[in-house]
Every structure is written in C-alpha cells, then in structure tokens.
C-alpha cells in the first residue's frame, strides 16, 4: 500500500481537483477544513472515516449541492458554461434510494433522460438496458413497494448511470442493507465500474468495504473533517470472493484500520 502523489490521477489531469476546501455552516460548525484532493479519471476512490468527519459534506460540494466556505473545486477537463461554472457530468446515489413511489422501475430510471428531452422510445431502450446491466431484467414494470431494499438500490444506481456520467458519487449507498446483500451489491458495483470505467467516489465507514472496492482510500478525521491519509490499494482487479477471503485482503484491512484509528485519535 503506497501513497505517492503523482500516481493519484493516473498520470493525466484530474477529473476533479479540490484545493484548500473548508466548509463552515451557519451555526458555526466547521465540517471540513483545508481538504486537498485530486480525483483521477477511471479511479475507484473511497472516502473512509467515522460519522461526522465531513465525508458526505465533501461529496455534496463536489456534486455542486453545496458551496465551499473557502477554497475551490475545479473540473480541469470539463467544459464550463457562460458564467464560468463547470458542467458537472455526474451521477449521485444517496444513502436512501429516493425513488418515485408512483413510478415503476423503468420510469424511475428514465426520468433523467426525459428531463433532458430524449425521445421516449430511446429513453425506454437505454433505461431497460441499464436495468439489465444492474441485474433487474424482468422487473421493469415493478413499483418500489414491490422491490427489496437491494433491488431499490440497484434501480437508484441504474438511474444515476443512465446518463453515462464521467463520475458516480455514492453516499453510503449500502449502509442500511444486510451483509449478504451488501456483498452482492459490492460485487455488482465493481463489475459495472470495470465494464464502463466511470470514476467512482464512494463514501463509507467500513474498512472492509473500502478495501474490497477501491483503488484508493482517502482516510478522513473528524472535528473538523480533514484528510489524514491517501492510500493506494495494491490489489489487482477483478476482485471476487477469493480476494475477500485472502491473506492479502486481511493484511490490507489491518493497514487501513490502523490508519483509521490514527485519524480518529488525532
């Protein structure tokens, strides 16, 4: 496990560059302090840390759902609009699936395409293909109330990816699921990422999940939230159950767990 800075972006310009970003809320809480982070194209990056360390706040600022109090978040390879704001090409998966209860799975996935005025037939075809890619072929007409928690999350991921974004931001999407379902969705998410090569930024408080999924793990400490370590996970892809039960995986988990304990104690 290594941390050289020049490997963090894959050798080219970063997709997103976070520079000296801090976030203070109106009540005076300093949620994030002086974060510097480059997100490389095609990487799978986990933001790991305890509750309250600013992971979700940082993710939302990257998404444009909140502005930094100080510092900048730049998109060096992305086009900008007339006012100079970056046209963020991203999908966002929240901790809860946030599906429309009155719409079936296909209609939920289609919504971003319809909002972009894509012809209905084309939107239906692409959405059906995405549902098949996340393992939900045959459930296109099912409503959220008819789906399990894991299936709802698959619909949410399909909706986030249907626009074929460059970056997928995920805020603890599997935290509320049972362990078996969580493992299965970890496997499926990695397969999707391996096939389509989007950049993934995944918020988690699980050492085991972060090591299994990631090329890089950014360890954050709380009060205020700040980056304490930026670790490369030296394990090849694709990963499967053999990796999850290997001595290499156990060793990597111990290393990351040690860094997390250091961050919590800092």
Automatic annotation (TrEMBL):
One of its GO terms (molecular function) is ATP hydrolysis activity. InterPro entries: AAA+_ATPase, ABC_transporter-like_ATP-bd, ABC_transporter-like_CS, ABC_transporter_ATP-bind, P-loop_NTPase. Residues 16-247 form the ABC transporter domain. Keywords: ATP-binding, Nucleotide-binding, Transport. Belongs to the ABC transporter superfamily. The keyword Nucleotide-binding applies. This is ABC transporter ATP-binding protein. Gene3D superfamilies: P-loop containing nucleotide triphosphate hydrolases.
């Amino acid at each position: 496990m290594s941390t050289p800075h020049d490997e963090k972006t894959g050798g080219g310009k970063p997709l997103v560059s976070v520079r000296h970003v801090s976030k203070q809320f109106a009540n005076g809480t300093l949620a994030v302090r002086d974060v510097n982070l480059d997100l490389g194209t095609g990487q799978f990056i986990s933001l790991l840390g305890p509750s309250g360390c600013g992971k979700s706040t940082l993710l939302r600022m990257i998404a444009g759902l909140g502005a930094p109090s100080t510092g900048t978040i730049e998109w060096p390879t992305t086009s900008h609009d007339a006012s100079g704001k970056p046209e963020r090409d991203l999908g966002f998966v929240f901790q809860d699936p946030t599906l429309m209860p009155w719409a079936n799975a296909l209609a939920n996935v289609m919504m971003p395409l319809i909002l972009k005025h894509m012809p209905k037939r084309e939107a239906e075809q692409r959405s059906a293909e995405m549902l098949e890619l996340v393992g939900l072929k045959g459930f296109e007409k099912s409503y959220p109330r008819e789906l399990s928690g894991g299936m709802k999350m698959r619909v949410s991921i399909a909706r986030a990816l249907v626009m074929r974004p460059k970056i997928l931001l995920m805020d603890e999407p599997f935290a509320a699921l049972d362990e078996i379902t969580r493992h299965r969705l970890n496997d499926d998410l990695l397969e999707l990422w391996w096939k389509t090569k989007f950049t993934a930024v995944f918020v988690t408080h699980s050492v085991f999940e972060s090591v299994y999924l990631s090329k890089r793990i950014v360890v954050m400490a709380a009060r205020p939230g700040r980056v304490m370590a930026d670790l490369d996970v030296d394990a090849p892809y694709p990963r499967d159950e053999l990796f999850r039960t290997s001595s290499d995986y156990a060793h990597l988990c111990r290393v990351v767990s040690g860094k997390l304990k250091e961050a919590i104690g800092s």
